[in-house]
Amino acid sequence: MKGTAARMGVMKRVSLVFKAKANKALDKMEDPRETLDYSYQRQLELLTKVRRGVADVATSRKRVELQMNQLQQQANKLEDQARKALGMGREDLARAALERKASAQSQLNDLQAQYAQLQAEEEKLTVASQRLQSKVDAFRTRKETIKATYTAAEAQTRINEAFSGISEEMGDVGMAIQRAEDKTAQMQARAGAIDELMASGALDDAVGGNRDDIQNELDMMSASSDVERELSRLKGEITSGAPKQLEGAANGNSQAAQAPQDQAAPYAPPPPAPTQPASIPASDRPAEPQDGEG
Fold first, then answer.
1. Rounded-to-integer distance, Cα 63 and Cα 66, Å
2. What's the CATH code, domain 9-167?
3. Confidence of residue 280 (pLDDT cuts 50, 70, 90)
Protein backbone atom coordinates (compact mmCIF):
# COMPACT_ATOMS: atom_id res chain seq x y z
CA MET A 1 0.00 0.00 0.00
CA LYS A 2 2.79 2.41 0.86
CA GLY A 3 4.60 1.60 -2.38
CA THR A 4 1.44 2.19 -4.39
CA ALA A 5 0.84 5.54 -2.66
CA ALA A 6 4.46 6.57 -3.30
CA ARG A 7 4.15 5.68 -7.00
CA MET A 8 0.90 7.59 -7.25
CA GLY A 9 2.59 10.60 -5.64
CA VAL A 10 5.47 10.40 -8.10
CA MET A 11 3.09 10.13 -11.04
CA LYS A 12 1.15 13.17 -9.84
CA ARG A 13 4.36 15.19 -9.53
CA VAL A 14 5.51 14.09 -13.00
CA SER A 15 2.12 15.02 -14.43
CA LEU A 16 2.27 18.39 -12.70
CA VAL A 17 5.77 19.04 -14.07
CA PHE A 18 4.71 18.15 -17.60
CA LYS A 19 1.63 20.35 -17.36
CA ALA A 20 3.71 23.26 -16.06
CA LYS A 21 6.26 22.81 -18.86
CA ALA A 22 3.52 22.57 -21.48
CA ASN A 23 1.78 25.63 -20.08
CA LYS A 24 5.01 27.60 -20.18
CA ALA A 25 5.75 26.49 -23.76
CA LEU A 26 2.22 27.35 -24.87
CA ASP A 27 2.37 30.72 -23.17
CA LYS A 28 5.63 31.45 -24.97
CA MET A 29 4.21 30.39 -28.32
CA GLU A 30 0.85 32.10 -27.88
CA ASP A 31 0.22 35.33 -29.74
CA PRO A 32 -2.63 37.38 -28.19
CA ARG A 33 -3.57 38.74 -31.60
CA GLU A 34 -4.04 35.27 -33.02
CA THR A 35 -6.04 34.24 -29.96
CA LEU A 36 -8.32 37.24 -30.31
CA ASP A 37 -8.84 36.57 -34.00
CA TYR A 38 -9.68 32.94 -33.26
CA SER A 39 -12.16 33.98 -30.55
CA TYR A 40 -13.78 36.44 -32.94
CA GLN A 41 -14.01 33.73 -35.59
CA ARG A 42 -15.72 31.40 -33.11
CA GLN A 43 -18.21 34.10 -32.17
CA LEU A 44 -18.98 34.68 -35.84
CA GLU A 45 -19.59 30.96 -36.28
CA LEU A 46 -21.92 30.96 -33.26
CA LEU A 47 -23.76 33.98 -34.62
CA THR A 48 -24.13 32.21 -37.96
CA LYS A 49 -25.60 29.15 -36.21
CA VAL A 50 -28.08 31.33 -34.32
CA ARG A 51 -29.14 33.05 -37.53
CA ARG A 52 -29.51 29.67 -39.21
CA GLY A 53 -31.65 28.54 -36.30
CA VAL A 54 -33.85 31.62 -36.66
CA ALA A 55 -34.21 30.87 -40.35
CA ASP A 56 -35.10 27.22 -39.64
CA VAL A 57 -37.74 28.23 -37.06
CA ALA A 58 -39.18 30.79 -39.45
CA THR A 59 -39.32 28.15 -42.17
CA SER A 60 -41.14 25.73 -39.86
CA ARG A 61 -43.56 28.45 -38.81
CA LYS A 62 -44.27 29.30 -42.43
CA ARG A 63 -44.91 25.63 -43.24
CA VAL A 64 -47.33 25.31 -40.31
CA GLU A 65 -49.02 28.46 -41.47
CA LEU A 66 -49.56 26.95 -44.93
CA GLN A 67 -50.98 23.79 -43.41
CA MET A 68 -53.29 25.87 -41.26
CA ASN A 69 -54.56 27.71 -44.31
CA GLN A 70 -55.20 24.43 -46.14
CA LEU A 71 -57.09 22.96 -43.17
CA GLN A 72 -59.08 26.13 -42.79
CA GLN A 73 -60.05 26.01 -46.47
CA GLN A 74 -60.96 22.33 -46.14
CA ALA A 75 -63.12 23.00 -43.08
CA ASN A 76 -64.92 25.79 -44.87
CA LYS A 77 -65.53 23.55 -47.89
CA LEU A 78 -66.91 20.72 -45.74
CA GLU A 79 -69.25 23.15 -44.02
CA ASP A 80 -70.56 24.30 -47.41
CA GLN A 81 -71.04 20.70 -48.51
CA ALA A 82 -72.96 19.88 -45.33
CA ARG A 83 -75.21 22.88 -45.90
CA LYS A 84 -75.90 21.81 -49.48
CA ALA A 85 -76.62 18.21 -48.38
CA LEU A 86 -79.20 19.40 -45.86
CA GLY A 87 -80.77 21.53 -48.55
CA MET A 88 -81.12 18.43 -50.71
CA GLY A 89 -82.55 16.41 -47.80
CA ARG A 90 -79.42 14.27 -47.34
CA GLU A 91 -78.87 14.49 -43.63
CA ASP A 92 -76.50 11.50 -43.65
CA LEU A 93 -74.17 13.27 -46.07
CA ALA A 94 -74.39 16.46 -44.09
CA ARG A 95 -73.45 14.53 -40.93
CA ALA A 96 -70.43 12.94 -42.62
CA ALA A 97 -69.25 16.30 -43.91
CA LEU A 98 -69.54 17.84 -40.46
CA GLU A 99 -67.59 14.93 -38.95
CA ARG A 100 -64.74 15.56 -41.42
CA LYS A 101 -64.92 19.24 -40.63
CA ALA A 102 -64.54 18.49 -36.92
CA SER A 103 -61.44 16.37 -37.62
CA ALA A 104 -59.94 19.14 -39.75
CA GLN A 105 -60.78 21.69 -37.08
CA SER A 106 -59.02 19.55 -34.47
CA GLN A 107 -55.89 19.40 -36.63
CA LEU A 108 -56.17 23.13 -37.19
CA ASN A 109 -56.26 23.77 -33.47
CA ASP A 110 -53.11 21.68 -32.99
CA LEU A 111 -51.35 23.55 -35.78
CA GLN A 112 -52.36 26.88 -34.31
CA ALA A 113 -50.78 25.91 -30.97
CA GLN A 114 -47.64 24.76 -32.77
CA TYR A 115 -47.64 27.94 -34.80
CA ALA A 116 -47.82 30.08 -31.67
CA GLN A 117 -44.94 28.10 -30.13
CA LEU A 118 -42.79 28.46 -33.24
CA GLN A 119 -43.55 32.15 -33.45
CA ALA A 120 -42.47 32.66 -29.84
CA GLU A 121 -39.30 30.65 -30.45
CA GLU A 122 -38.57 32.67 -33.54
CA GLU A 123 -38.95 35.94 -31.66
CA LYS A 124 -36.70 34.66 -28.87
CA LEU A 125 -34.00 33.57 -31.31
CA THR A 126 -34.26 36.86 -33.16
CA VAL A 127 -33.68 38.81 -29.95
CA ALA A 128 -30.76 36.49 -29.05
CA SER A 129 -29.30 36.96 -32.51
CA GLN A 130 -29.50 40.72 -32.21
CA ARG A 131 -27.86 40.66 -28.77
CA LEU A 132 -25.15 38.32 -29.98
CA GLN A 133 -24.58 40.55 -32.99
CA SER A 134 -24.11 43.53 -30.67
CA LYS A 135 -21.65 41.56 -28.52
CA VAL A 136 -19.73 40.39 -31.57
CA ASP A 137 -19.49 43.94 -32.87
CA ALA A 138 -18.30 45.20 -29.48
CA PHE A 139 -15.79 42.35 -29.24
CA ARG A 140 -14.51 43.11 -32.73
CA THR A 141 -13.95 46.77 -31.80
CA ARG A 142 -12.21 45.82 -28.57
CA LYS A 143 -10.19 43.14 -30.39
CA GLU A 144 -8.86 45.62 -32.91
CA THR A 145 -8.01 48.06 -30.13
CA ILE A 146 -6.14 45.41 -28.15
CA LYS A 147 -4.32 44.21 -31.27
CA ALA A 148 -3.25 47.74 -32.14
CA THR A 149 -2.06 48.37 -28.57
CA TYR A 150 -0.19 45.07 -28.47
CA THR A 151 1.45 45.73 -31.84
CA ALA A 152 2.55 49.20 -30.72
CA ALA A 153 3.91 47.81 -27.44
CA GLU A 154 5.74 45.03 -29.29
CA ALA A 155 7.29 47.52 -31.71
CA GLN A 156 8.32 49.79 -28.83
CA THR A 157 9.85 46.85 -27.00
CA ARG A 158 11.83 45.82 -30.06
CA ILE A 159 13.05 49.38 -30.55
CA ASN A 160 14.12 49.63 -26.91
CA GLU A 161 15.85 46.26 -27.10
CA ALA A 162 17.63 47.35 -30.26
CA PHE A 163 18.81 50.57 -28.61
CA SER A 164 19.93 48.73 -25.48
CA GLY A 165 21.57 45.96 -27.51
CA ILE A 166 19.78 43.08 -25.77
CA SER A 167 17.67 41.95 -28.69
CA GLU A 168 18.56 38.73 -30.48
CA GLU A 169 19.42 40.43 -33.77
CA MET A 170 21.55 43.14 -32.18
CA GLY A 171 23.16 40.54 -29.93
CA ASP A 172 24.24 38.56 -32.98
CA VAL A 173 25.61 41.73 -34.59
CA GLY A 174 27.47 42.63 -31.40
CA MET A 175 28.97 39.14 -31.17
CA ALA A 176 30.07 39.34 -34.81
CA ILE A 177 31.75 42.70 -34.17
CA GLN A 178 33.44 41.34 -31.06
CA ARG A 179 34.73 38.30 -32.97
CA ALA A 180 36.04 40.57 -35.75
CA GLU A 181 37.82 42.78 -33.21
CA ASP A 182 39.33 39.74 -31.47
CA LYS A 183 40.58 38.32 -34.77
CA THR A 184 42.00 41.70 -35.77
CA ALA A 185 43.83 42.05 -32.45
CA GLN A 186 45.15 38.50 -32.81
CA MET A 187 46.44 39.17 -36.33
CA GLN A 188 48.07 42.42 -35.21
CA ALA A 189 49.77 40.64 -32.32
CA ARG A 190 50.95 37.89 -34.67
CA ALA A 191 52.30 40.40 -37.17
CA GLY A 192 54.17 42.27 -34.40
CA ALA A 193 55.62 39.04 -33.04
CA ILE A 194 56.82 37.98 -36.49
CA ASP A 195 58.43 41.40 -37.03
CA GLU A 196 60.28 41.11 -33.72
CA LEU A 197 61.46 37.59 -34.51
CA MET A 198 62.68 38.63 -37.94
CA ALA A 199 64.48 41.66 -36.49
CA SER A 200 66.18 39.50 -33.89
CA GLY A 201 67.20 36.94 -36.49
CA ALA A 202 65.18 34.12 -34.94
CA LEU A 203 63.28 33.78 -38.24
CA ASP A 204 64.84 33.68 -41.67
CA ASP A 205 63.88 36.22 -44.28
CA ALA A 206 62.62 34.18 -47.23
CA VAL A 207 62.82 37.21 -49.53
CA GLY A 208 66.24 38.46 -48.51
CA GLY A 209 67.79 35.00 -48.48
CA ASN A 210 69.01 32.77 -45.67
CA ARG A 211 71.74 34.04 -43.38
CA ASP A 212 74.44 31.46 -42.75
CA ASP A 213 76.61 31.10 -39.65
CA ILE A 214 79.61 32.86 -41.22
CA GLN A 215 77.58 35.98 -41.97
CA ASN A 216 76.18 36.00 -38.45
CA GLU A 217 79.69 35.72 -37.00
CA LEU A 218 80.95 38.57 -39.21
CA ASP A 219 78.03 40.75 -38.12
CA MET A 220 78.75 40.02 -34.48
CA MET A 221 82.47 40.79 -34.99
CA SER A 222 81.64 44.13 -36.64
CA ALA A 223 79.33 45.04 -33.77
CA SER A 224 82.07 44.08 -31.25
CA SER A 225 84.60 46.28 -33.12
CA ASP A 226 82.23 49.23 -32.92
CA VAL A 227 81.79 48.73 -29.19
CA GLU A 228 85.57 48.52 -28.62
CA ARG A 229 86.11 51.70 -30.69
CA GLU A 230 83.55 53.66 -28.67
CA LEU A 231 85.00 52.36 -25.40
CA SER A 232 88.54 53.46 -26.38
CA ARG A 233 87.29 56.90 -27.36
CA LEU A 234 85.53 57.39 -24.03
CA LYS A 235 88.64 56.26 -22.12
CA GLY A 236 90.79 58.75 -24.06
CA GLU A 237 88.42 61.62 -23.33
CA ILE A 238 88.37 60.84 -19.62
CA THR A 239 92.17 60.44 -19.43
CA SER A 240 93.02 63.69 -21.27
CA GLY A 241 90.33 65.77 -19.60
CA ALA A 242 91.21 65.06 -15.93
CA PRO A 243 94.55 67.11 -15.70
CA LYS A 244 93.02 70.07 -17.49
CA GLN A 245 90.14 70.14 -15.03
CA LEU A 246 92.55 70.07 -12.06
CA GLU A 247 94.71 72.89 -13.56
CA GLY A 248 91.69 75.02 -14.26
CA ALA A 249 90.46 74.52 -10.70
CA ALA A 250 93.86 75.66 -9.24
CA ASN A 251 93.97 78.81 -11.41
CA GLY A 252 90.47 79.64 -10.47
CA ASN A 253 91.23 79.42 -6.75
CA SER A 254 94.25 81.81 -7.06
CA GLN A 255 92.31 84.37 -9.04
CA ALA A 256 89.47 84.23 -6.57
CA ALA A 257 91.91 84.94 -3.73
CA GLN A 258 93.42 87.98 -5.51
CA ALA A 259 90.17 89.54 -6.67
CA PRO A 260 87.27 88.20 -4.63
CA GLN A 261 84.91 90.83 -5.95
CA ASP A 262 85.49 89.91 -9.60
CA GLN A 263 82.88 87.71 -11.21
CA ALA A 264 84.03 84.17 -11.90
CA ALA A 265 84.69 83.33 -15.53
CA PRO A 266 82.28 80.91 -17.15
CA TYR A 267 83.38 77.35 -17.30
CA ALA A 268 84.46 76.11 -20.72
CA PRO A 269 84.34 72.39 -21.35
CA PRO A 270 87.65 70.77 -22.32
CA PRO A 271 88.24 70.05 -26.00
CA PRO A 272 87.51 66.54 -27.09
CA ALA A 273 90.40 64.16 -27.05
CA PRO A 274 91.76 62.96 -30.35
CA THR A 275 90.07 59.87 -31.59
CA GLN A 276 92.16 56.80 -31.01
CA PRO A 277 92.54 54.49 -33.94
CA ALA A 278 90.23 51.63 -33.70
CA SER A 279 91.79 48.35 -32.87
CA ILE A 280 91.46 45.89 -35.66
CA PRO A 281 90.66 42.37 -34.63
CA ALA A 282 93.17 39.77 -35.35
CA SER A 283 90.85 38.10 -37.79
CA ASP A 284 90.50 41.33 -39.87
CA ARG A 285 94.20 42.32 -39.88
CA PRO A 286 96.16 41.70 -43.11
CA ALA A 287 98.54 38.89 -43.00
CA GLU A 288 102.18 39.91 -42.30
CA PRO A 289 104.66 39.06 -45.02
CA GLN A 290 106.81 36.08 -44.30
CA ASP A 291 110.53 36.10 -44.63
CA GLY A 292 111.48 36.10 -48.20
CA GLU A 293 108.20 37.61 -49.42
CA GLY A 294 108.01 40.88 -50.78
1. 5
2. 1.10.287
3. very low
Can you name the residues that pair with 209 across neighbouring β-strands?
205
pLDDT digits (tens, 9 = 90+) for 182-208: 889 888 888 888 877 777 766 665 555
Please tell me whether the overall predicted TM-score, pTM, comes out greater than 0.85 for this model. no
Instruction: Kindly report, residue by residue over 54-74, the tens digit of the pLDDT.
Output: 999 999 999 999 999 999 999
User: 113-120: which pairs have CB atoms within 8 A and are 24 or more residues apart?
Assistant: 114/64, 115/61, 115/64, 115/65, 115/68, 118/57, 118/60, 118/61, 118/64, 119/61
Name the residue type at position 66.
Answer: L
Which own/partner contact pairs does 11-15 have at CB distance under 8 Å and 24+ positions apart? none
Report in angstroms the alpha-carbon separations of 230 from 249, 273, 274.
28, 13, 13
Question: Is residue 212 classed as helix, strand or coil in its secondary structure?
Answer: coil
